[in-house]
Write a structure and sequence with these properties.
The complex is a heterotrimer of chains A (447), B (478) and C (107). Chain A contains 14 helices and eleven strands. Chain A has 447 residues and is α/β, with parallel strands linked by helices. Chain A folds into two domains: 350 residues, Amidase signature (AS) domain (Amidase signature (AS) enzymes); 83 residues, no CATH class. The longest helix of chain A has 24 residues. Helices cover 39% and strands 20% of the residues of chain B. In chain B, helix 6 packs across helix 7. Chains A and C meet through helix 8, helix 9, helix 10, helix 11 and helix 12 of A and helix 1, helix 2 and strand 2 of C. Strand 10 of chain B pairs antiparallel with strand 2 of chain C, so a sheet runs across the interface.
């Protein structure tokens, strides 16, 4: 069976033991009783390897479980595998893993997206019904789009980050990836909610369980002036179709002006690289991770520099270098401050937008899955795939990826060997309920 | 000669909440290496800091006691650099939005007083402990113990002021007493609860902007601070500076040579790449929280001193000691509150109980109310002070209550009148000259005679009896 | 800002990398492109000095964690990386730097 190299660890022993124990339990007690779940390898599962797709942590085992994982297990789920990913979450193609690239489930020449490539593939292939990914600038939504599955990036602070290896702390969130919107909602309900171990986590669970009926005003809009950024006609077609369907139950408002997408992309990369350069400074090989032969004559500074140069991949090194420059007044710290200003300004803009509309509809990605190997030559070209996803990350808003399986867009005779285009729904913070409503409305219509 | 310099201090006090600042690890002195640690304080991947509310409360207490302006929005930042004692590769500290700014420290010590303006107060986490010493480390490796890592520190920065060495010493002692009074820290320099960096520049050395302060590190005791400042003043005075400048630098005081050694030139702020800590939202301090702390704030040492010296009329040196030693003060208060005479209570805690604690380090001290009763018996002349001390010793030793021991003393068979008369005669026979002096008017000597006789008499003797016998002796030997 | 070799070296050291291990010329070129891309950020007049108001935590709401009860972890988590005395070890740490020319002038 072709695994597409989606997995770093298969947890057969522990999963089996757990399954046996669950057999002795009343299945009605736990909402996810016996459900197998794959977890991205930057989310801690106690006693299992936690590699983050990196050589630096290839032998590291997590001494504790992430809160999201503990909640899933308390709900009866069985963690069966840790999935492959772009190293430390940095990448949009699944090609930056020290454990080899992840390949697309329907066409192995294509990228499965990233950084939650393995998790997207695991669900798309049908190995598991649910996977956990992590989204910083689109790392849950983009691979979900490339693999044709629903996924959600929750409001920042909805799911505890405790146990998620930090990349960009102000934007990281754990997000579920599933086969249908209902499951998305169920899983989010299980893993979300305040955690005393994460001070940035909020009490939000009540929003996820709002009643199903549509409110009187449910205003939907697209973002002005982004058409030129969509490079794939099928995606444009998917957008048009979705808006037509939504018009049958929602109010379609005039397109709104968000920020300038290019500026937002830059802001995202400056802030995330800066935070990453700090978050990855802990990898010095002393307490955990990369073991180096320590020669006593060598100075500490040389020991760790050599270790880090050998154990981080090229993309991670680039981001750390850039991020360090963005924070250092000897280099480019004016960029960091400008990026933060752009972010704050954008958050205000989005707050205003969500007073006049309830849902934004836009593409998830500018292209369909690209060929593996074409983006890795130029660091900046890869960043462009995130142009539609960084918005929700900067604003802290929830965003849902939905593959457009409407027969008018993605007819049955076309579906072999390709994936449908996806669209993205964005709502105001803590309005995941609106996302689920609209997504189910769409799912129903093309069923 | 009293050398004077422009001195600024950075004082790090370890807050004793029993917990680290950002994780739930307990804090224990003398714990085996790397035993009071967890994945959070060791910076393991996937961990996050959670601030401790008690540390925040104590920070506010200190800011109140120092008359500082308390900021309503605190923001932690990351100070980034690589070093083995810093597991995350950054320290969580504060920069532009600290706990408090402004204010002043008004100190009083042994009759001297002074005041220094303050710049800022903030919270930060401590780093791990590194051991470099050769004997310990084969092949020049460095050993790391993370027990200390993450412990809460309060850093106070003073405004540079012209001070002499004695004033710096007084200021630091008073600050130490204040930290103890507020129950923030034991502030024991030997145990590393208090760490001080001193910035020294000469006031008369060209205009102030040409003269950068020199930071002295590795001063681990009050004595060393005095010596280091003196040595540094001397060094700067005798320097022939190039182009009339003293360079901004960090030096390390060497107690053996009594001179500071160059460590490095002052790092510019940019190397640390400070940015707001994304894992910790700004902390909002409400007016009501500050008020609740204000209502519970203990009096500072100076206020306690006034109360003890002026209201309770204790001797100045007792008042000084008690006000500067909070645990002893607390003990004094608990006994005083049981209606003990303040002077007796002070004498007890400062003399008797210290002796008891030294003799019986593992045993608990007697109940305050029982001690108060014994002390009142001394006041009423029922037993001597010396006998009272013996009662306490016996009660601690036997884990009994002072009340029982005291009764034993009181009910102990007394020596006969004849024995007492013989004893008085025997003691007084050695003081013929003094007796003569007494007869010719030196009435004060009566107390002296009493003292000598009581010292020779059994502890349980009633001083009233002794007084009567002595008086008869004196009149019969006229 | 031009990314010459010296700048890349300094940046690499600050970032915790060994300059010799980097393909300096390639990195210089990549950094130029990355920083150019980053420079699309506009310069706005309003600055953000104070903490984000939406992300403020009232001090009364700081959770109280007593002991480590909230965190379950393997108590022996670092056992295999410590020496027999219980310490972690690393190579020489530079805590004293040598004299610079300036200092020599001052003597």
């Amino acid at each position: 069976m072709d695994t597409c190299n989606a997995y770093i660890s298969i947890l057969d022993e522990s999963a089996l033991a757990r399954a046996r124990w669950l057999d002795t339990q009343d299945p009605s007690l736990r909402p996810l009783h016996g459900i197998p779940i794959a977890v991205k390898d930057n989310i801690a599962v106690q006693g299992c390897r936690l590699t983050c797709g990196s050589r630096m942590l290839s032998r590291h085992k997590a001494p504790f479980s992430a809160t999201a994982v503990r909640r899933l297990e308390a709900a009866g789920a069985v963690i069966v595998a840790k999935t492959n990913m772009d190293e430390f979450g940095m990448g949009s193609s699944g090609e930056y893993s020290a454990f080899g690239p992840v390949t697309h489930p329907v066409n192995s020449f294509l990228s499965a997206g990233g950084s939650s490539a393995g998790s997207a593939v695991a669900v798309a292939k049908g190995d598991v019904p649910i996977a956990l990914g992590s989204d910083t600038g689109g790392s849950v939504r983009q691979p979900a789009a490339f693999c044709g599955i629903p996924a959600i990036r929750p409001t920042y602070g909805t799911v505890s980050r405790f146990g998620l290896v930090a990349f960009a702390s102000s934007m990281d969130q754990i997000g579920p990836m599933t086969t249908c919107v209902d499951d998305l909602k169920t899983v989010l309900g299980v893993i979300s909610g305040h955690d005393p171990l994460d001070v940035t986590s909020q009490n939000t669970s009540r929003r996820i369980h709002e009643p199903e009926k549509l409110p009187e005003t449910n205003r939907v809009a697209t973002v002005r002036n982004i058409e030129t950024l969509i490079r794939e006609p099928l995606i444009r077609k998917g957008m048009d179709r979705v808006l037509k369907i939504l018009a049958g139950g929602f109010t379609i408002a005039d397109p709104v002006t968000g920020g300038d997408p290019e500026e937002l992309l830059s802001a995202y990369y400056v802030i995330s690289s800066a935070e990453a350069s700090s978050n990855l400074a802990r990898y010095d090989g002393i307490r955990f991770g990369g073991m180096e032969e320590k020669s006593p004559e060598q100075m500490f500074s040389d020991t760790i520099r050599n270790l880090r140069s050998r154990s981080f991949g090229p993309e991670v090194q680039r981001r750390i270098l850039a991020g360090t420059a963005y924070l250092s007044s000897g280099f480019h710290d004016e960029l960091y401050h400008r990026a933060v200003t752009v972010k704050h300004h954008f958050q205000k803009t989005i707050r205003d937008v969500f007073t006049i509309i309830d849902l934004l509809v836009l593409p998830t990605t500018p292209t369909l899955p690209f060929q593996r190997g074409v983006m890795t030559g130029d660091p900046v070209s890869m960043y462009a795939s995130d142009i539609f996803t960084v918005m929700a990350s900067l604003a802290g808003c929830p965003a849902l990826n939905l593959p457009v399986r409407d027969p008018a867009v993605f007819p049955a005779d076309m579906s072999a060997g390709t994936v449908p285009p996806s669209i993205q729904l964005i709502a105001a913070p803590y309005r995941e309920d609106l996302l689920f409503q609209a997504a189910r409305f769409l799912e129903e219509s093309w069923r | 000669m009293n050398p004077v310099a422009v001195v600024g201090l950075e004082i790090h006090a370890r807050i004793q909440t029993g917990r680290k600042l950002f994780c739930g690890c307990p804090v224990r002195e003398e714990a085996p290496p790397n035993s009071t640690v967890c994945p959070v304080c060791m910076g393991y991947p996937g961990t996050l800091p959670v601030p401790d509310r008690q540390a925040a409360a104590l920070a506010i207490d200190l800011a109140l006691a120092l008359h500082m302006t308390i900021h309503r929005n605190w923001q932690f930042v990351r100070k980034n650099y690589f070093y083995p004692d810093l597991p995350k590769g950054y320290q969580i500290t504060m920069m532009d939005h600290p706990v408090a700014t402004g204010g002043f420290l008004q100190w009083h010590r042994q009759g001297r007083a002074g005041k220094t303006r303050l710049r800022r107060l903030h919270l930060e986490e401590d780093a791990a402990r590194l051991i470099h010493d050769e004997p310990f480390c084969p092949d020049s490796m460095t050993l790391i113990d993370f027990n200390r890592c993450g412990m809460p520190l309060l850093e106070l920065v003073t405004e540079p002021e012209t001070l002499d060495v004695g004033q710096v010493d007084d200021m630091l002692h008073y600050y130490q007493a204040l930290l103890r009074t507020l129950k923030i820290s034991d502030a024991d320099m030997e145990k590393g609860h208090l760490r001080i960096d001193v910035n020294v520049s000469l006031p008369d050395f060209g205009s102030s902007h040409e003269n950068a302060p020199v930071e002295i590190k590795n001063v681990n005791s009050f004595h060393m601070i005095r010596k280091a400042i003196q040595a540094e003043i001397h060094r700067q005075r005798t320097l022939k500076p190039v182009r009339g400048r003293v360079h901004r630098e960090t030096r390390r005081y060497n107690p053996v040579t009594d001179v500071s050694e160059h460590l490095r030139f002052k790092e510019s702020l940019s190397d640390y790449r400070y940015f707001p800590e994304p894992d910790l939202p700004g902390i909002e301090i409400s007016e009501s929280f500050i008020t609740s702390r204000k209502n519970r704030l203990p009096d500072p040492p100076e206020t306690r001193f006034k109360w003890l010296a002026e209201e309770l009329c204790l001797k100045k040196d007792y008042a000084e000691f008690l006000s500067m030693h909070p645990p002893v003060f607390d003990r004094f208060c608990s006994i005083f509150q049981c209606d003990a005479d303040p002077r007796e209570a002070a004498h007890y805690v400062m003399q008797t109980e210290r002796m008891l604690q030294a003799r019986f380090p593992e045993k608990p001290m007697p109940e305050p109310s029982a001690i108060a009763r014994v002390l009142n018996a001394v006041i009423r002349g029922i037993i001597t002070r010396k006998a009272a001390a013996e009662v306490c010793v016996k009660s601690v030793e036997s884990n009994g209550s002072p009340d029982h021991i005291f009764e034993e003393y009181r009910d102990a068979p007394q020596i006969t009148d004849d024995t007492l008369k013989t004893l008085v005669e025997s003691v007084m026979s050695g003081f013929a000259d003094e007796l003569a002096a007494y007869q010719s008017g030196k009435r004060g000597l009566f107390g002296f005679f009493m003292g000598r006789i009581l010292a020779a008499a059994p502890d349980s003797i009633d001083p009233v009896r002794v007084k009567a016998v002595l008086e008869r002796y004196i009149s019969s030997n006229n | 800002m031009e990314w010459n070799r010296e700048k890349i070296r300094r940046l690499a050291e600050l970032a915790g990398f060994a300059p010799e291990s980097l393909e300096i010329d390639r990195i210089a070129e990549e950094m130029t492109r990355i920083i150019e891309f980053a420079h699309r950020l506009p310069i706005r007049s309003e600055t953000c000095d104070s903490p984000e108001p939406s992300r403020c935590l009232p001090v009364e709401k700081i959770p109280v964690i007593s002991g480590n009860q909230s965190l379950e972890f393997d108590r022996d988590f670092h056992r295999d990386r410590r020496d027999s005395l219980g310490y972690f070890r690393t190579t020489q740490v530079m805590h004293l730097e040598s004299d610079t020319d300036d200092e020599k002038d001052l003597r």
